[in-house]
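Q&A log
Question type: sequence-to-structure
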Amino acid sequence: MLGLMQSQGLLIHMLLEHAQRHHGDTEIVSRRVEGDIHRSNWATIARRAKQVAHALDADNIPAGARVATLAWNGYRHLELYFGVSGSQRVLHTLNPRLVPQQLAWIINHAQDTVVCFDTSFAPLIKAVQAQCPTVQHWIALSDETPAQALDCAPNVRAYETWIAGHSEHYEWDEFDENTASSMCYTSGTTGNPKAALYSHRSTMLHAFAAAFPDALNLCSRDSLLPVVPMFHVNAWGIPYTAAAVGSKLVFPGPAMDGESIYKLIEAEGVTMAAGVPTVWQMLLGHMQQNSLKFSTLKRTVIGGSACPPAMFDSFEQNYDVRVIHAWGMTEMSPLGTVGVIKESGGTKDGDRTKLLKQGRAVFGVDMKIVNEHGIEQPWDGKSYGDLLVKGPWVIDTYYKSEAPPPLVDGWFPTGDVATIDAQGFMQITDRSKDVIKSGGEWISSIDVENIAMAHPCVSMAACIGMAHVKWDERPIVVVVKKPGTEVSKEEVLAFFEGKIAKWQIPDDVVFVDAIPLGATGKMQKMALRVQLIDYKLPQD
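Response status: OK
Response body:
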């Protein structure tokens, strides 16, 4: 027996129609590449997204074709999110921090037909366009096609010219909710990057779950600043969830420095912000140096990498901003867990330890940890193992992959090593490839990094294992000093005493000017190892 309910597919254009109808006057604010502040609203975004759909139709771009974006967080990028996917094309977000060779490989692998790019990336487009034979249309995200864009690719058109004259009304087709909606490539830390191909159904379910009170807890009263880039995992799905609940969106554009982010938060009454620790580090540094406070910001979502305890305490204690720890992956759309205490009434004494973990699984995601033999480990907060996940917005297989499907008995292996406690709070202890095993004992690089980051003179720290004749591996910590401070190797190592076991204390401290970062602010340990290829551990 079937239920007697209306049948309507879960399609992304539904989010936009809802936002237009019920939250049309809610603002969408963007700092543009040009440096000015642009103001729009959900009703205008919806009308212009429909013009995008018409423009694609006029160019005879078929359903299923990949339309790429190389762009910062802004209103035009948001219009493309809905106009491309809503008209049955696939939105393919490109990472502008890739080198030209990597970018060209991804464009060709995806077989992108259209590339829409912010004008600040014109040099990058110029470097790759001759290597991208599948691209038929180059669209500069600008009012008029500037001179630098005209030189970067053949027949470049300005976005505003491209959509101008097209109707602001569009009859969205009804189609299978499992139709591909968007695409994002992994960081490719080992070998070529791999593509996650999301569906309308998976994106919609992810948007619903993200809004739950025990997830991101978004609503129409929020003014939301997604610092996490729209070119990476669709900005953690925030643009879709914001449309579903009618939140105000505030886009930072290319200005990611602490001063610019702070001014935008204050000017636009931002209540919630989402980003990675490296961005918040710049923000907090600016505020500390200038004795500033927040007037409206109430909570921040921190993901991408673990939030250092010192950063957590600074937000909570110094600025009265609630920190929401989150974890996920490109292959998970990306939301997997969120750090929200179960008891009502806010946090209590003793909750800090739990809130520093990556959090509890949101509805729709299941997880487990297994040992090297695939045997599930207990949820006791001590036993660790490889983290596996499954759910309706978790990848089944990679796009155009020649490798065997990644699933293990229906579970996706994340590559993370984790513990799960009795209340379901998961904590990432390392990446599988970053686990340091010294003399048969396991050392968490994250624990080492968090302690180093708590030192008042340390701006950033990365722990990696180095080959050792006797112990197989020994940890070292690579440190970037805070500007205007001085600290010795001996002082940093002394800071570890009493905080972890003596044998877990790094053997050495290496000071560098900068630690390589990926597009989302994650430390690139592979690049760091290459940088230290000639390094030798101190003699015992």
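Response note: The radius of gyration is 23 Å.
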